[in-house]
Amino acid sequence: MKTQKRTIVQSGRIILVFLLALSTSLWLMGCSPEAQEVKEDAPLVRTLTIKSVEGNLKSVYPGEVCGRNETKLAFQVNGKIINRYVDLGSIVTQGDLLMQLDARDFQQNIDAIGAQLSSAQSQLNLATDNLKRYRQLYEQKAISKAEYDSFQNTYNSAEALVRQITAQYEQAVNQLNYTNLYSDCNGVVKSIDGEVGQMVGPGVVTSRPQVVTIVRDGEREVEINVPENRLDELRKAEKIQVKFWALPDVVIDGRVREISPVADQVSRTYKVRVSLVNPPEGIELGMTSSVIISGAARQQATAYIPLSAIYQTGDTPAVWVVNDGVVHLRSIKVGAFGDNQVQVLEGLKDGEIIVTAGVQKLREGQRVRTSAGEAR
């Protein structure tokens, strides 16, 4: 009887040891790297549900109020500025004197040419008198035809010399007048590039020819700079509005009047002039403005996603699309960038879920846990 009890106890001990070994083995399997990898293979990711938007695409460009017509005035001769009669913002009328050059050399040139003209005129008078006397003698057959022709040639030469020096004199007078720079229109002085004592003129390489810029009275415009990839959007714009920082309650309709055919060499943008439709009073030159371009309605819906959702593979942008808890890489076509967002033109549909954070750590076909967000 005792032997039987001993056998039962030993069997129970063996079973207990077996169960303990089995549980230990299962516990070790649960802590193995393979099990950890399975758990870590489904990370929690932040997602976004795509919601496409219809309607107009708006772009905003900073601009500056300027005149439609601007005149850049310059001296027609070289010289040193001795007087300046206008300042920035001065209101001028046609014929107002703006600047003066030192005219002493030009006056001396006129005096020298004037003396030559007097001498030539005296020679012409003498040739005229001689021609009259010898014409009478020729008619009386007192001299030969050759002698008469000689005096005729002398007269013709003297007359041509007078005409030549007269033209030189008039040119010298014009150059003297060119030492005074006059306004050729009514307007406002926008910029001054010449000061008293400065050498100016087309012959001076180190200075710009224009010295005064005048904005003509009349229509006001706003000048903006547009990148080349937005020019087509600008041409198809349904509506253009202009706002002013100094006049927050004023909103004016605008229309594109002119697009520069050549890009700026530094910024590689195109200058665009926007005319103001029925502008109110108070809009001054140089005011800072914002031009809002409302694009035409698109034929297909577009969506906006965070820049952090873009997974760049070479030159092709892509996103991770979550389908039944598994991510798949999909190429997309992007449009405008701005405010940490990018416009998606092709590649996504309404209701699809994409990963918006940690995209560089994912791989094709990986299982993830999602935390859906709202589309913007």
TrEMBL record:
GO molecular function: efflux transmembrane transporter activity
The keyword Membrane appears for this protein: yes
Domain of life of the source: Bacteria
GO cellular component, as recorded: efflux pump complex
Coiled coil residues, start to end: 117-175
Keywords: Coiled coil, Membrane, Transmembrane, Transmembrane helix
Every CusB-like beta-barrel domain range: 222-295
Transmembrane feature ranges: 12-30
Domain YknX-like C-terminal permuted SH3-like: 305-369
Official protein name in the record: Multidrug resistance protein MdtE
Organism whose genome encodes this protein: Pelotomaculum propionicicum
Gene: mdtE_1
